[in-house]
Amino acid sequence: MFARILALTIKELLALFKDKRSRFIVVIPPLIQLLIFGYAASFDLNHIPYAVYDRDGGYAARDLLARFEGAPSFDLARRIQRQDEIAEVIDTRDCLLVIQVPPRFTADLVSGQTAPVQILIDGRNSNSAQIAQNYVARIVTGFNQDWVFARGLQGMPVSLVTRAWYNPNLESRWFFVSGLVGLLTLVVTMMVTALSVAREREQGTFDQLLVTPLRPVEILIGKSMPGILIGVFEASLVVILAVFWFKVPLMGELAVLYTGILLFVFAAVGVGLMISSLAATLQQALLGAFLFLVPAVILSGFATPIDNMPPAVQMLTLVDPLRYYLVILRSVFLEGAGFGLLAQQMWPLAIIAAVTLAAAGWLFRHRMS
Amino acid sequence: MPTLVSSRLIGLLRKESLQILRDPSSIAIAFVLPVLLLLLFGYGVSLDSKHVKVGIVVEQPGSEARSFVAAFQQSVYFEPHLYPTLQAGRAALRASEVKGILVLPADFAQRLKGDRDAPIQVIVNGVDANSARLLEGYVQGVWTTWLQRELQARQIQVAQPVEPQTRIWFNPELESRNYLVPGLLVVNMTLVGALLTALVFAREWERGTLEALMVTPVTIGEILIGKLLPYFVLGMGGMVLSVLMALFLFGVPMRGSLWVLGICSTLFLLTALGMGLLISIVTRNQFVAGMVAILATFLPAFLLSGFLFDIGSMPVVVQVVTHVVAARYFVTILQSLFLAGDVWSLILPNAAALVLMAGFFLGLSRRLLRKRLE
Amino acid sequence: MTDSPLLIDRLTKSFQGGGRRVTALDGVSVSLAAGVVTGLIGPDGAGKTTLMRVVAGLLIADAGRVEVLGVDVAAEPLAVQSRIGYMPQRFGLYEDLSVRENLDLYADLQGVPAAARAERYQRLMEMTGLGDFMARLAGQLSGGMKQKLGLACTLVKPPRLLLLDEPTVGVDPVSRRELWSIVYRLVEEEGMSVLLSTAYLDEAERCAEVILMHQGRVIDQGPPRRFSEPLRGRAFQVSVPAEERRSRQAQLSRTPGVLDAVLQGDSIRVVLDREPPAETRRLAESSAWRSVEPRFEDGFVTLLNAGQERVEPPHVTLGSRFTGAAIEVEDLTRSFGDFVAVKRSSFTVQSGEVFGLLGANGAGKTTTFRMLCGLLPVSSGQVRVAGVDLRHAAAKARGRIGYMSQKFSLYANLSVRQNLDFFARAYGLRGRAAGARIRWALEAFELETFETTESGTLPLGYKQRLAMAAALMHEPDILFLDEPTSGVDPLARREFWGRINALAESGVTVLVTTHFMEEAEYCDRLAIMSAGEILALGTPMEIKARAATAEQPHPEMEDAFIALIQQRGSD
């Protein structure tokens, strides 16, 4: 039995890697996605274009504005001279925000009064707007503290001291790159397995396979082996790149990481084989994989937190294997979590894997007829 | 013979329309997938955190601490959990039961009066950096409001030199749905225009139907228009459906003019159709066409269009790449059309870029498609 | 109608492929006769399809000139395309459109005025018999009906020149005959000229003229008689005892001076060399040898074999371990929903027998075949293969059967060696046993030179050999062959059957489906199926005898087949 499964596995791998198209699928998309995601996917704003409308011109205004010019996240795009220019620079998206310093700003400050500063933010991208707003608030708070301290005034108590565990500089690239390990494992494993049976059906080789003494379960194992091997390989590749290229810290143990990877790859192979046994043609398999992948990624917490979703949708994410896998990855990478903390992510993965593989086996046998 | 030309074209158009109507996968890509995406994004996905679980460690209960905790309990952004000791709080954070903890030290009341030591300490889980930063902002907001009220109540005068008065234009409540949904329309149109067209045209090569078609006196132009027009209608149908959902289901405002929306959608759809045609002409194989369409059109529409991630913050190389992504121009137009209005200085250059790209892709398809089998 | 509808002058066309340049057409010059059917005949890779495509304006020639109906194709392809009809090998019907919608499309594309359509459709439908199926989706038609619809689409505007590229591959004899009657009627009534390529040599025989191509060159052109006439007096029919026919056939084909020897029911058809050795000549004078009319096929085979050394395929023999009934089928029924594809079929195949399963497209033979191989569960009835009940020990039964399908379904991107490796292991062979078996396969099927070649790029004949080698890896007791020679040229078919005969001699049971009636003659026994039922069961002679009538006392197998099916239809 093992000899037959081994033969089938070797054949599957050969067929996969000798085929230009399959090689392409296994190699090119992950590389492109890794580079694009790694560099493009980030919610950090590091070049916020802004405009300044200084109607005061006093030294306090210059001091405050100098802090913006010195901030690495802010790029001064324009100095405005007229009120109606504000709408222009925001409408055209030349600037994300405009800082308007009112007349008498310095005079008010010097006389001990509160001086307002108007911050006008383009809200079309609400996330960027919110982040920019926080950045502005931090700079203004810093200015206030120094102002109060220099003059020996009774100021607001020093506000918050924030520390971020696991990611002290709050780099969102760490978050996305570690999530990327999950995304790419899923995409490649699904593609390899979802298309494998459908491709044989289309090429007519499936019948030839079925008339050999191979039992359905052996065919199923043989068909899932390449997915498992390639999935683990792909995950390892991306992990290596994440650590050595993108410099994401790997705090946890490899044993924990690989337990998670294996469990997840089994679940992904199960889903892929289910799609494959259901699809009659390659196009259906492709479409089926696509229809699974898109919601699976969106609902996994890859880019947007699951906690922000409404309760009904959160229930839906419980059957998404990627959800658990992302938690495992990020915890192992950044938090250094061990088996104890991750057990509650691992058992649902194991259940999903068991159910999908069993369902694939059942479908496989019934679709044969 | 103008009458004959129209007869051939009508024949092709009728054939294509019938095929669309009978092929469930066309309908799936054109309508089911966009609706699914819209529902998922509109209802499921949000960057706006509400009811975030935070832990508050109160080492020594007192009236100040009580009123501080109450401020958090009243906020819609938080769902506070109380912990008596720092250890308990840290354990909860480590086990991911809470996203962050606020520590009120035993001398909280003392520190409030001084101005050197921070009265509270915030520890956030930084794994999801974006959420952590937003959380920090929310905490800051609640803290500042509470502090001002507290100081006022005790009649303590403090100097507050600069007060930022923030006004968010176009989307004052900062609803992330208002910018995600217009962006999704772009993704949806890419699906119909590029992915579906690429698959369907590649299928004709694969099934050999094109060989029989080629030996009829049909011209290349007719084949192209016969393919483009039905999928154009399908794509526009999907667009109208998506816009209706955006406006009436998700309540996204529409501040620009509908006719501008129509013209810009037409331009973008033509670009997407051109890309789909080009991909299928070059690959002539459904499987490869599907993969290339996903890689070259669908993913960039998601990632490099500015729909989710800020283009200005990407490395320069990636920013340059975004200029060849048609979706980038359409995302810019749509977000402004929905939320800001007809900003001509923004719409015109982006629309011009779309015209160029549509011309390029359609022109290249026209050049590459020959009535030959080589 | 004196002008030739098609003039080809020194046409050359080559393709770049796999790092080398393949010359598909090498200085072809042809002038087609007007108002008749001309056959384009040649082995696989002769350049027939390339020629058709150049004429249709789908390929550009490297050199030479093609003039269709007085128009230069290279200069004005659209003008040519509006006046010819071309039916490619795989006519791309839109399977999700109905019959009428497909016709409408081509009528639109060819600019048939709406007023003329009703009459034209009616005529085409009357000829093709598709009138009752106008609303049915093309994808739901049987193979034969699809071909007829493809032809109807090509003919929707009466073309002056009709190009047909192997229009009858995989089509059953009844549909084939109907297809031809349509073409001949149109030639007669509308004065159309037809150029057709085919692998069926009986079709070539009926053409007014034949162009014989080989390796991109035209070898000869003329009426079919011109090819068979030189063989007059050299073709014989040899009666042999039924049980000796295979060994005699093998023996005869090795006899010096014999150019060709094939089975024909219980006799052997032999073609002799121009000057056979004395002993062979003496043999021909015996009473068992009866001189017969030479056929086009004889001419084709001798012409293409001439000049080349006759390669005698090494005989494939396997030690079969099984005796008794190899396949027992009793009351076999299979239904798909309401549709009963196979109705209570019963037959038995003895070990060492070559058993043929014949039937029109959609008669249920593929369904029967798939149930016997265990690819499809039976609805009711008994099937015992190699003495094993398929319901209980399918895997065990599968270890004793070999299977080869019409699509040569091997892994196209694996090399010959890798395919053999895989199938050896899939059948449980390993180590030295597997190595020995693979060596045997490479030698016996002359695949050594292709060991590392990707299977997908093999010439068709070699693909077929590889498929057969893979099916024989484990020395099966029973071999299932599903239209194994569909689309294969006559020379490769002969070679293939040489091997099958040798296998049968060694005791292997063979179950085969085919649309070639001459291959039916090679079988020991036949079952003819129609509408899910077995109409006739017996030796080729018995079947033919059942169709004998007063006016046709010695019907050919095709006549017998059609008579049986039509008789059934009229009941």
Shape of chain B: elongated
Strand content of chain B: 5-15%
Structural class of chain A: alpha/beta
- Count the beta strands of chain B: 5
Q: How many domains, in number, for the residues of chain B?
A: 2
Helix residue percentage of chain B: 55-70%
Q: Mean pLDDT across all residues of chain B, rounded?
A: 85
Largest pleated sheet of chain B: 4 strands, mixed
Q: How many individual β-strands of chain A? A: 5
Task: Count structural domains of chain A.
Answer: 2
Question: SSE order of chain B, as H and E?
Answer: HHEHEHEHEHEHHHHHHHH
Largest interface: A-B, 104 and 110 residues
Structural class of chain B: alpha/beta
Order of strands side by side in the largest beta sheet of chain A?
2-1-3-4
From the N-terminal CA to the C-terminal CA of chain A, the straight-line distance is 23 Å
Termini separation of chain B (Å)?
30 Å
- The averaged pLDDT of chain A comes out at 85
Helix content of chain A: 55-70%
Low-confidence stretches of chain B: none
Main sheet properties of chain A:
4 strands, mixed
Low-pLDDT sequence parts of chain A? none
Explain this structure to me?
The complex is a heterotrimer of chains A (369), B (374) and C (571). Chain A has helices spanning 2-18, 20-40, 59-70, 84-91, 105-110, 126-150, 172-203, 205-210, 216-244, 254-278, 282-298, 311-316, 321-335, 339-367; strands at 48-54, 74-79, 97-101, 115-122, 160-165. Chain A has 369 residues and is α/β, with parallel strands linked by helices. Chain A has 2 domains: 2-41 and 171-367, no CATH class; 48-150, abc type-2 transporter like domain (abc type-2 transporter like fold, 3-Layer(aba) Sandwich). In chain A, helix 3 (59-70) links the parallel strand 1 (48-54) and strand 2. Chain B has 374 residues and is of the alpha/beta class. Chain B has 2 domains: 12-45 and 175-368, no CATH class; 52-153, abc type-2 transporter like fold. Chain B has 14 helices and 5 strands. Chain B has a 4-stranded mixed β-sheet, sandwiched between helices. The longest helix of chain B has 31 residues, at 177-207. With 571 residues, chain C is α/β, with parallel strands linked by helices. Among the domains of chain C are: 6-222, 3-Layer(aba) Sandwich (Rossmann fold), CATH 3.40.50.300; 228-305, Alpha-Beta Plaits; 410-475, no CATH class. Chain C has 20 helices and 24 strands. In chain C, strand 23 (525-530) and strand 24 form a beta hairpin. At the A-B interface, helix 2, helix 4, strand 4, helix 6 and strand 5 of A face helix 2, helix 5, strand 4, helix 6 and strand 5 of B.
